[in-house]
Amino acid sequence: MNVLGHKNPDAKAKYYFFALLPVVFIAYYYYGMRPVWMCAWSVLLCMALDMVCLKLRGKPVYLPTSAAITGVIVVMLMPASVELWLVALIDVISIVLGKHVFGGQKYCIFHPACVGLAFIAVVRPAQMFLYPAPGTALPLTGAVPNSLLSVSPYGIMMNGGKPAITDIDLLLGNFTGPAGAHHIIVLATCALFLLVVKSASKAVVFTSMGTFLTLFYLFPRIPTSRFTSAALETGVGMFLFLVVFMAGERYKAPKSIRGRILYGFCFGALSFLYRRIGKTECGEIFALLLCDAMALHFDAWTYKAKLLYQSYQRKVLGSSKERVDVLKDESTVQDVTEVEGRA
Q1: Eight-class DSSP state of 134
Q2: What is the reported pTM?
């Protein structure tokens, strides 16, 4: 919606907002109205903050779809037991520091939600990594008793254990964790939608997923089969959600196909490394922040690599062509000499 007659610079973000609705619904299915209420609060606050920042910066004011998406992502990557004040703090950091400090939607280097979530993961880890079990009756507002909270399967795997999750529960996300970050079937459907409407980059999505799965298949970190290890790593934690809704965003990804492939490879590889040697459950967020910081360079690096390859190719082919020409000339001279000898 255009409030002041100016073109909305993030109008295409509506597809991401629509894609997030099934994730919010599955969070409602498992945890009741609390995550829905938190999403509504977070969306309204993020949009208000964004519009205030635009006004203070003297920019055209519009209803920011991207800010609404940030509000939903913040809640979906937090426990369903998160409190209003903590959501508000993450929203302020995400919109003010993660977005407008860098110049707004078109110029921000990082995904705003990652900035806020990374800050809270460092200063308030206890409130970010304890989760209610699906089906727990949660109050609409207020604090949730610690007796209803527990560590996630990710926390168990981080300590070398194997979580007791059936294949069906893994696909449906029926285990403790962030409110909307680990439902494989729902997230896969959302990814398919975003790829069909061309809002997500195929190169980034497939390269990051392929790199992540391959590395955990080759180097599992839990005592189980390689295939089970790769499946569990995909299902638990935030990686799949970040691939679908953040890493694959076209406006954030590098512009060239080669740059996007390198971006996806680095995100998958760094997420693998953070899980193997990191001590926090949101290592993928820090991996994405690093990749975002380097995104502008990926295009340049791949372009320089292309030029070097073309230069090498010209030298090799050029020298090969010269050798062929010399051989042809020598063969021609030999043929002429033989003909003259016969004459």
Answers
A1: T
A2: 0.85
